[in-house]
Specification:
The chain is an all-alpha fold. It has four domains: 3-43; 53-77, no CATH class; 79-127, no CATH class; 129-206, no CATH class. It is 62% helix and 0% strand. The chain is built from eight helices and no strands. It has helices at residues 3-20, 22-43, 59-70, 87-103, 118-123, 130-152, 156-168, 180-195. The longest helix is centred in the C-terminal third of the chain and has 23 residues, at 130-152. The radius of gyration is 34 Å and the shape is elongated.
Length: 206
């Protein structure tokens, strides 16, 4: 008897026996499935930590363990990055998210917002490079007249009067300390979007 015929006969008998004992076959299959499920749940897992892909003796792995030992409070820290079309929306969304998370005491012990830190609001300039600080100081000094005008006339009339002065100025010293073509393009985009029923904010920080 050939191997093919023997296999065919065995499979035929197995099929006939399974059909005649369908209930027992079903129970046995169910027991196997349940056993496999319990074994998988207890013994198989997936590690999503990519640092474990590298040998633990690597230099950066040792530094990471030393850091975690020195700062154990950061082990369970979750870092959230909030992005939006303008800095103002990003700040508003970050503060709102912080309030919602801070109210959930069952899942979050504390919430810390980097952009809303009292210490850095007072001393943030101390962390700038000297060249960046000098550039910021120069820009603020040049923009002081325009900031004063906006503070006195906080509406579109005051805003567009500054642009009008910049466009009609004949003295180069009266130029705005900003990229005027870029500003005009942003204003035009915001107006066009609004006229077409859309919603576009004009950021003063971007």
């Amino acid at each position: 008897m050939s191997q093919e015929k023997l296999s065919h006969r065995l499979l035929t008998r197995w099929a006939d026996w399974s059909l005649s004992h369908a209930v027992w076959v079903f129970i046995a299959s169910l027991l196997v499935i349940v056993g496999a499920w319990f074994y998988t749940a207890e013994n198989l897992s997936i590690n999503t930590d990519t640092t474990d892909l590298v040998a633990p003796e690597a230099r950066f792995q040792q530094n990471r363990r030393n850091f975690e030992k020195a700062f154990p409070q950061d082990m369970r820290t979750i870092l959230l990055v909030v992005e939006s079309s303008t800095p103002e929306l990003t700040k508003a969304a970050s503060l709102r998210l912080s309030r919602l998370l801070a109210a959930d005491k069952d899942n979050f012990e504390s919430v810390y917002t980097l952009s809303d830190n009292e210490y850095f609001r007072r001393n943030g300039l101390l962390y700038l490079d000297v060249n960046d600080l000098q550039k910021l100081s120069t820009t603020m000094a040049e923009a002081q007249p325009f900031i004063g005008r906006i503070a006195q006339q906080t509406n579109l009339t005051g805003f567009f009067s500054i642009i009008d002065d910049a466009l009609t100025a004949t003295d180069a010293a009266t130029d705005l300390p900003l990229d005027l073509p870029s500003l005009i393009e942003k204003v035009a985009t915001a107006l066009h979007t609004g006229l077409n029923g859309g919603d576009q904010l004009l950021s003063c920080n971007s």
